[in-house]
Amino acid sequence: MYDFDREIDRHGTWSVQWDGIADRFGVPDLLPFTISDMDFASPPEVLAALRDRVDHGVFGYTDWRLGEFRDAIRHWYASRYATEIDPDALVYAPSVLNQLSQLLRMWTEPGDGVVVHTPTYDGFRKAVTGLGRELRGAPLGDLDALERELARPDSRMLLLCSPHNPTGRVWTEEELATFAELAERHGAAVVSDEIHADLTTDAHRHVPWTRVAEPGRGRRWALVTSGTKAFNFPALSGSYGIVGDPDARTEFVRRMETGEGLASPAVLSLTAHIAAYRQGAPWLDELRGYVAGTMELLRERLATGLPGVVWEPPQAGYLAWIDLRPLGIEESRLQEELVSVEKVAIMPGGVYGTPGFVRLNVGCPRKKAERGVDALIRAATRLRTS
Ligand SMILES: Cc1ncc(COP(=O)(O)O)c(C=O)c1O
Q1: Pair 94, 241 in one domain
Q2: In a shared domain, residues 115 and 151
Q3: Could you say which of 69, 70, 75, 269 has the lowest number of CB atoms within 10 Å?
Q4: Ligand 1 pocket by C-beta < 6 Å: which residues?
Q5: Whose CA is nearest to atom 7 of ligand 1?
Q6: Domain shared by 101 and 190, yes or no
Q7: From the CA of 78, how far away is ligand 1's center (Å)?
Q8: pLDDT in tens, 55-93
């Protein structure tokens, strides 16, 4: 029903991915496979709702508690995740990272430790260290390390990425329950960033944190998320969260509306969220299928093009996290080859604290994804030492 093969020229739209490439990679005019937004237009249903709202013409101050924003979110959780959420527990903020900053300020002090899985989404590192907190990493899958880091007396928060960026790992209910127990045992608050949740593959089911947090396990927790990732409208801004403890929720809203001066939401973001959550499911399901097809193509190309590299499609998302360490290539050499010779921009693993990997964004028409993976295979083949 929807055309994900259509290539849309994003040049000249002030796009970070396309127009801002030199800021990160030093040179302009690279084919980008970088930060996590997609080259697809948002669902036509979202575009139609935005047009209607724009046609109204008046964009005065708005209240996210009025109208159907919260009910659309409730509907989404009930229909996608068989999870009942309390609309009164919802909060609004300009972005997920803004919510995270606010919660870090509320629940931790400068110098405190914040525990994350490694590799780690670079936005987490920037938020945590930027506020003078210490980022404490535990390798994905290493529960002993996670407990060790949480047990340090000044570790005050477990910051989860669920599903996990950059690996695409979807946590099972059992794993989440273990995280909840560990956090509770060591008195750590939990913030679960679930912005990639809607992008799971069919074989994996996302479990919202509310399902393990309630009833009663540890009072200080928040689920922070947004429809901007799955429906590709991050530049409209806007996000929402569920803050478990009513007092903490009131405090969160108070801080946003007084200290931060953020009483009015981005109205077009409310419009887009409502349309996406009421009418966007067929588009999203087709998108997930399209991305799964692209990941299959990557699997085949990598298996024949780079034998020795073992790669499986991610459980969620449009980011391919590829372990190139068996090839013995120094990260900076690979980047140089990709940029100077192949003219592509692909995120180096070092950005996420694990050099030797790359993160290839394939949230784009398949033809472009093919160009990316082929460029990677050519560059790695020329440089491989093992
Ligand atoms: C895990 C995760 N959280 C948050 C964000 C950013 O969300 P926002 O733009 O709402 O701050 C991203 C974007 O890539 C992300 O991957």
Answers
A1: yes
A2: yes
A3: 75
A4: 36, 95-97, 121, 123, 161, 165, 193, 195, 226, 228, 234, 239
A5: 96
A6: yes
A7: 23
A8: 999 999 999 999 899 999 999 999 999 999 999 999 999
Which token pair is 222?
């928040």
**Structural domain that includes position 364:** 21-42+281-385
Q: How confident is the model at residue 218 (pLDDT cuts 50, 70, 90)?
A: low
For residue 183, give the CATH number of its domain.
Answer: 3.40.640.10
Q: Which mutation among 92, 102, 121 tests ligand 1's pocket best, with the greatest number of atoms within 8 A of CB? A: 121
Q: Please choose, from the candidates 93, 117, 116, 118, the residue with its C-alpha nearest in 3D space to the C-alpha of residue 103.
A: 93
pTM above 0.90, yes or no: yes
Average pLDDT over residues 243-250: 94
Rounded to the nearest angstrom, the distance between the alpha carbon of 229 and the centre of ligand 1 is: 8
From 244, 279, 314, give the residue that closes a domain: 279
pLDDT in the model for residue 351: 97
CATH number at residue 321: 3.90.1150.10
Whether 51 is in a domain gets the answer yes
One domain, residues 142 and 175: yes
Question: In the chain, how many domains are there?
Answer: 2
Chain-wide mean pLDDT for the chain? Answer: 96
Q: What is the DSSP string of 71-117?
A: HHHHHHHHHHH-----GGGEEEES-HHHHHHHHHHHH--TT-EEEEE
Q: Cα angle at 139 between 136 and 144, to 5 degrees?
A: 85
Residue 350 pLDDT level (bands cut at 50, 70, 90): very high
Minimum CA distance residue for ligand 1 atom 13 = 36
